[in-house]
Amino acid sequence: MTTVITHTGEMNQVHQEMAAEKTAAPKETCGLPFVTAPRMTARDVSVSYEGGAKSAIRNINLDIGEKQVLAMIGPSGCGKSTFLRCLNRMNDTVPGCEVKGEILLDGHNIYAKEQEIVELRSQVGMVFQRPNPFPKSIYDNVAYGPRIHGLVDGKDELDGVIEESLRRAGLWAEVADRLDQPATGLSGGQQQRLCIARTIAIAPEVILMDEPCSALDPIATGIIEELISELKENFSIVMVTHSMSQAKRVSDRTAYFHLGDLVEVNETARVFEDPEHKLTRDYIGGRFG
Ligand SMILES: Nc1ncnc2c1ncn2[C@@H]1O[C@H](COP(=O)(O)OP(=O)(O)OP(=O)(O)O)[C@@H](O)[C@H]1O
């Protein structure tokens, strides 16, 4: 009797281990995590919260290509936003958050002691999930960055930067005659484009976007997606999205995260049409998430 129970227990364990092996994240990320001439590189990046008690992402190795859109997808809580926030040191402000590993921007370590945070944020801009315009005029929202970073010399130059930024964000025609009006009077989609204009006004190299369309209706979403495709002509973009169709439409590369591991990254078409890892296949096939 005892033998049978033990044997059954052993068989169960073997089956569990086999099942775990099939679904476990690979020791190395599948696909092509590295690109030639990357703008940013992440090597062995691990992040924990609560003073190390809670691991959020483990040993992430990933390149951000120049003038490309990288989409990060995966089930809720898998660490997409945590990784995104590492790229401009937003996690520095979270008490008990520890970031390990190395992240380089144009070959410079952004976690080096001498790195100025204000300078980094001007090189790596961020657009948040919910449009967050300042309670100021449309003009002053866009003028804020160039003013504090001392990027412009005089009113004429500032006016030029503001018009150019609003044009590139596809908003100029809608707001040109009311630049002195409060930004909070704009629609949600317009506010998000204003936040994008505010970000590009400081001429960053990389733009991080954390689910930039999740608070928008389908029409505003379409406008922002078109804008992202245009912006990549000048910027590198890293975007977290819960929408696989959005990742397919706008990104060049897609990274799939699962429970803190970067399981697979590759050209977007490859990830969606012929993923290497079972976890990626299951997620894009809608089997979990
Ligand atoms: N400030 C924090 N303190 C403690 N734990 C955190 C904190 N922020 C995130 N976490 C945890 O880290 C893990 C990764 O979270 P993260 O927000 O990066 O995931 P995500 O993939 O972006 O999720 P979602 O798609 O739901 O936004 C989760 O377990 C989350 O609970």
What is the helix tally?
Answer: 11
What percent of residues adopt helix (DSSP H or I)? 25-40%
Instruction: Point out poorly predicted stretches.
Output: 1-11
What portion of the residues fall into strands of 2 or more residues? 15-25%
Shape: globular
The CA-CA distance between the termini, in Å, is 42 Å
Characterize the structure shown.
InterPro entries: AAA+_ATPase (IPR003593), ABC_transporter-like_ATP-bd (IPR003439), ABC_transporter-like_CS (IPR017871), P-loop_NTPase (IPR027417), PstB-like (IPR005670). Its EC number is 3.6.3.27. This is Phosphate import ATP-binding protein PstB. GO terms for molecular function: ATP binding; ATP hydrolysis activity; phosphate transmembrane transporter activity. It is globular, with a radius of gyration of 22 Å. The longest helix has 22 residues, at about 1-25. The model is unreliable at about 1-10 (pLDDT under 50). It has eleven helices and eleven strands. The chain starts with a helix and ends in a 5-residue tail after the last helix. Strands 1-11-10-4-9-8-7 form a seven-stranded mixed beta sheet, sandwiched between helices. A four-stranded antiparallel beta sheet has the order 3-2-5-6, covered by helices on one side. By secondary structure, the protein is of the alpha/beta class. The protein has one domain (about 40-285): 3-Layer(aba) Sandwich (Rossmann fold), CATH 3.40.50. It has helices spanning about 1-25, 80-85, 115-125, 140-150, 155-170, 170-175, 190-200, 220-230, 245-250, 270-275, 280-285; strands spanning about 30, 40-50, 55-65, 70-75, 100-105, 110, 125, 205-210, 235-240, 255-260, 260-265. The structure holds adenosine-5'-triphosphate. Adenosine-5'-triphosphate binds next to strand 3 and helix 2.
